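During the no-cost extension, the postdoctoral fellow (Dr. R.K.) reprocessed legacy sequence entries with the updated structure-token encoder. One reprocessed record is reproduced below for audit purposes.
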Amino acid sequence: MIFFATAASAQQTGKGYSSAVRLIDSGQTQQAMEELRPYLDYKNYGQLALYARYHFARAAYKNNQYQLAQATLQELIDNYKWEKEDDAYFLLAQSYFAQNKAIDGLKQINQIKSPEVQEEASKASYQYLSQNASVSLLVANFPSYQSNKGYSLALKELLLKQSSLTTNEKQILNDLNQRDLAGDGSTEQTWQKVENNTLDIAVVLPFNYQGGSGVKRLKSNNFVFELYQGIELAVKEAKAKGLQINVRTFDTERKDDVVRKVLQDPFFKQANIIIGPIYPEETELVATFADMHQIPFINPLSNISTTLGSSEYAYLFRPSTEIIVDKILAHSKSHLKGNRIALAYSASSRDELMASQFADEARKKGYQVILNQKVTSSNIRGFLESAGMKPGMTAKVDQVVIFSDDPYIASPSLALMESLSTTVPIFVMDSWLYFNFANFEMLDDANINYLGNNMVNFDNPETEEFRAKFYEQYKSYPGPNTYIGYDVTSWVASTINPNKGFDFQKNLNQRGYSTGGLGYGVDFGNSHSNRYVPVLKMEKGKLIEIK
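Re-encoded structure tokens follow.
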């Protein structure tokens, strides 16, 4: 705050005025107020009276008499033309802040014209708002007070502490990220992107999702470690081909505080892309960070696009639930007859969401969903029998859709299908092909259609080569997530690199559908998830893609 102990322009100099001002700074505020009272008379003291009123208010403020300070300053501002008016506005703002009247205080700061006083007021705004204001208050009033750097900085820091952001909050945060807000009392440092000629990948995964820390005690059945084995092999191959690639791995431990700490690592200043995280709560934190620093990140396993929010830098490596639903209905329209559908789904969040989306879209397209049931291992057989899928019965539906990756749902379903000779098409996820309890060659006549979810093509020579290399290194064959880890990393390395540049979405749009890798291809043209969902059938013991 800028104080004035003397008034050069005063018409008269009172004996006790200067000593009263000194009393304020020495902490004797009550005595100072008493000694200043005679000098409040404008008729006798002219301009000196205006300085006296300001210092009287200052003494009242320091004495915690905020309403008295407020009334004194308001009268000074309203009734007199004073050369140090900006100081009065600043002290009035502080008086409002002390009464937890944030907006009233901010209104006074908006009146300040002096750059020097504005800077002090900005710091005071930050100190008060960062400790006392809510995100909702600051977001609602952002258009009115965004020119106050302290206000903007307090809002930015509060937004960064949120586990999730609304669309409006993300837009505001993006705006604030473009501003230089340093120097207003915070510890904020300007983020400077490190540019180099290397593909820098940050792998952010919950290796210890069941507790613990470190990687030495990870078990072989840890699905995240399985995913990372594929990532590691893909990086090794990329380096062997001469690609400049640098990978840093971070364990989130499935803890929000750990995620926040991870994102403070300096490596992210040079990272071109982030692989991970997986779980929704972690994804929300990384999405906010990715938007702020314009770093693409990829969830390698999920199909649920809603977990990504509105982030323009968030991607699903697999198809979204919406895309899978659209593929089934488009395939049905072009390949199947009849409009009666039996729909089953497991209790997983993905399957419940996909079933709801499917039922809504199917009805819009003229289909009748005559059975719509959540199933378990104990009632899936009953569901199929209700649809007429039973020896000696005529089917009551024209197609069956089962959304589930649960082997305990797949097992009784396949057992029943082996005993049937029905032509009713049944749609299931490609995960059913990984289960080892069914003889799929015996199911050629069952009309099972497998929905590709970044499915591995085991007839691909590259897949055989990958399996051989994996076995050579680990003395075992890769699990389902290992293929995904390998493919997502190979896909990233072929999309952004020193030769093609590091604009991820631009390169994806130019690339469109592409083969390569271990699967049947991917297509991210104008999309943030894989648009390519092949439908496959078993014919004479071989999987055939139905075009």
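The CA atoms of residues 90 and 109 lie 6 Å apart. Residues 1-12 have pLDDT under 50 and may be disordered. The remaining legacy entries will be reprocessed before the final report is submitted.
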